[in-house]
Amino acid sequence: MRVYDKVYTKLLQAKSLNSKGVKISHWRVSIEAAKLAKRTLKWMEPEKSLGRICGVKIGDKFKHRAQLKMIGLHCQPLSGIDYANINGKSLAISIVDSHRYSNESASSDKMIYCGHGGLGFSGRKLPREDQKLKCGNMAMKNSMDEGTPVRVIRKVGAQKNEMFVYDGLYVVSHCAQKRNEGKIMFWFYLDREPGQPPLHQMLNENE
In the 3-class helix/strand/coil scheme, how is the chain assigned residue by residue? Predict the structure, then answer.
């Protein structure tokens, strides 16, 4: 990721000089930096796949979501649920817990993940809506039915120090529909696959 870091820093500096007081969208800069870094490294676009990603270990940290896409860990630039058509069925392959929804961690091996939709994108004040069983939500339900693994990435830290950390593989054990502030939401209950090193242990080792 050194090439990416260098490209991102140069782009950010260039845009800062030319911004003339206009607020810079850092996530757009990170996407542009990822594209340039991949071109420099001559990397192919990664295929979406289930399970582990070669070379990625539990506890690995990433500064920007664009880096997750570079290596195929999570390919959605904004949405929390990434999914792919595998053997004719839409399956969830990864989720990002960015604290935008009311996600919960009952323990280090269990997670309750709120479904996608109903809030609009960040920065857009739209009326809340019922979540629907389609796109990422349908993929999560299909993953539950098929028992396929889902990669979990967590956002940790705050403000300028926030990072995305790979937590490992989980399976969706069950899902439920509940009302939250008057709107229907999907809640997916995930269990961490056994035999994986604890995230906190790997974070300590990587520091």
Answer: CHHHHHHHHHHHHHHHHHCCCCCCCHHHHHHHHHHHHHHHHCCCCCCCCCCCCCCCCCCCEECCHHHHHHCCCCCCCCCCEEEEEECCEEEEEEEEECCCCCCEEEECCEEEEECCCCCCCCCCCCCCCCCCCCHHHHHHHHHHHHCCCEEEEEEECCHHHCEEEEEEEEEEEEEEEEEECCEEEEEEEEEECCCCCCHHHHHHHHC
